[in-house]
Design a protein that fits this description.
By secondary structure, this protein is of the alpha+beta class. 16% of the residues lie in helices and 44% in strands. The chain has an eight-stranded antiparallel β-sheet. Strands 11-12-24-23-22-16-20 form a seven-stranded antiparallel β-sheet. Strands 5-1-7-8-9 form a five-stranded antiparallel β-sheet. Helix 1 packs antiparallel against helix 2. The longest helix has 11 residues. The chain is elongated, with a radius of gyration of 25 Å. 34% of the residues are buried. The mean pLDDT is 95.
Length: 370
C-alpha cells in the first residue's frame, strides 16, 4: 500500500476515529486504527465493539492496500509531523514507513484482515437534523446522565420520535433533563436509548453549523450517525426506559420568574464556600418579590437577595447547588421560570412551550440552620 495526503487531512481523520479506540482491551487489534486504501478512497476506522467510527480522507492512492497501525503511536507521529504532504507506505511484512519532508518513521503494522469492521447497517430509513441542533440538544441534556454503571439505562439518553417531534431525555435519579424540537419532516415513531459516551464523542466531532446536516439511522440494536465524510455506529442500550410522564406535573403552588444570569451567578458565588464532595444545600427562601439564597458550610456562610416576580405561596426549599448550576448554564433565555409545589416535591425550570424542562429534586435540610 502506498498513498499520499496532506498532514492536515490525515490528522483531522485520525482525531475523529481515535475517539473509538478503547483505552483498555484484551484484543490488541482494537488498539489500532485501520487504514483502508484497498478501493478508490482512503478510509480510517476505529472500533471498540460498542462504538465504531469510520471517516474518509482526501489523498492520492499510489498502491492499493490495507494496514492496521497502533493508534497511540500513529496519532502521536502524525501530530508531530511537519505541515506538509505525508507518504505512507507498507511492504509485504507489514512494515510501515511514514515520510514527511525530512522526517521518516518506520513502525510495524498488523494485518488489516484481523480488524473487526463496523457492523453492516441497512441505511435506508433515516431522520435528518441540523448538526447545530443535535450538538445543542446533547449539550443541554448530557450533564444529567448517571456516570456509574449500576443502572445502564441511566448512562444513556432516550431519543423519542413522534411524528415531527424529537424528544431527548436524560436522568440520574436526582434530576431529569428534557429537550424537545420540531423536525422538518414527519417520521415513524421511534424510541431508543443511546449511550452517553457515544453522544459525547459525536458532539465533539460535529461542526455545529446550522446548515450542515446529520442523518440518524435507527435499527433494533444500533444507531448510526452519518455526517460530512464520517460514519459513527453505536450499540443501543437495551431495556425499557423509565416512565417519567407521571413525574411531569403541571401543578404548582409557587411560580417564580427570575433573571437567569443573576440567579446563576449568585449560586456560583455560593459554591465558593463548598468543598469538593461536600453536600451542602443552597437554601432558597421565596416571599413576595424577593428570593433569598443562603449557604452555610465549615468555610463560612453567604446570603444574597435577588428581585423576582412571584405568583402563589411563599416557600423555603433546599437544593444541591450543582444541579441548579448545570441546568441554568445550558438555558439560553435571559429570564427563566421556576415552578415549585412544596419543600419535598421536585422543582421545574421550563419555558412556556416546554422545549426544555429541567426537573430537580430538593434536598432535605433542617430549616432551623438557616
Amino acid at each position: 500500500m502506498k498513498f499520499i495526503c496532506s498532514k492536515a487531512n490525515l490528522l483531522h481523520g485520525v482525531n475523529i476515529v481515535s475517539k473509538a479506540v478503547p483505552s483498555k482491551t484484551t484484543m490488541s487489534i482494537l488498539e489500532c486504527i485501520l487504514i483502508d486504501a484497498s478501493a478508490n478512497e482512503i478510509k480510517l476506522t476505529a472500533n471498540d465493539m460498542e462504538l465504531g467510527i469510520e471517516t474518509k480522507i482526501e489523498g492520492e492512492i499510489l498502491e492499493k492496500g490495507i494496514i492496521a497501525l497502533d493508534a497511540k503511536i500513529f496519532s502521536e507521529i502524525v501530530r508531530k509531523l511537519p505541515d506538509n504532504d505525508v507518504v505512507i507506505e507498507t511492504d509485504s511484512n507489514l512494515k510501515t514507513t511514514i515520510t514527511c519532508e525530512k522526517a521518516k518513521f518506520n513502525i510495524s503494522g498488523k494485518s488489516g484482515e484481523d480488524f473487526t469492521y463496523l457492523p453492516y447497517i441497512e441505511r435506508t430509513d433515516f431522520v435528518t437534523i441540523s448538526q447545530f441542533t443535535l450538538k445543542e440538544m446533547i449539550r443541554q441534556t448530557i450533564f444529567s446522565i448517571a456516570d456509574n454503571e449500576n443502572n445502564k439505562l441511566m448512562t444513556g439518553e432516550l431519543f423519542e420520535i413522534k411524528g415531527n417531534q424529537l424528544k431527548v431525555v436524560s436522568l440520574d435519579g436526582h434530576r431529569i433533563s428534557i429537550r424537545r424540537i420540531e423536525l422538518k419532516d414527519t417520521y415513524e415513531d421511534k424510541k431508543v436509548v443511546v449511550p452517553g459516551k457515544t453522544l459525547q464523542e459525536v458532539s465533539k466531532i460535529l461542526s455545529g453549523e446550522a446548515e450542515d446536516e446529520i442523518r440518524l439511522f435507527f435499527t433494533e440494536n444500533h444507531v448510526v450517525f452519518e455526517f460530512d465524510s464520517t460514519l459513527v455506529v453505536s450499540r443501543l442500550i437495551e431495556g425499557e426506559y423509565f416512565r417519567i410522564e407521571q413525574m411531569l406535573s403541571n401543578d404548582y403552588e409557587t411560580k417564580v420568574k427570575i433573571n437567569k444570569r443573576e440567579f446563576l451567578n449568585c449560586i456560583d458565588r455560593a459554591t465558593l464556600l463548598v468543598k469538593e464532595g461536600d453536600k451542602k444545600p443552597i437554601i432558597i427562601h421565596i416571599e413576595d418579590g424577593n428570593m433569598e439564597l443562603t449557604i452555610n458550610s465549615q468555610l463560612g456562610s453567604m446570603d444574597e437577595n435577588i428581585d423576582i416576580e412571584k405568583e402563589g405561596k411563599d416557600i423555603l426549599i433546599g437544593f444541591n447547588p450543582k444541579f441548579l448550576i448545570d441546568a441554568l448554564r445550558v438555558i439560553d433565555e435571559e429570564e427563566v421560570s421556576v415552578y415549585l409545589v412544596n419543600p419535598k416535591a421536585p422543582c421545574f425550570i421550563k419555558d412556556d412551550n416546554e422545549t426544555y424542562i429541567y426537573l430537580i429534586l430538593p434536598v432535605n435540610f433542617n430549616a432551623v440552620n438557616r
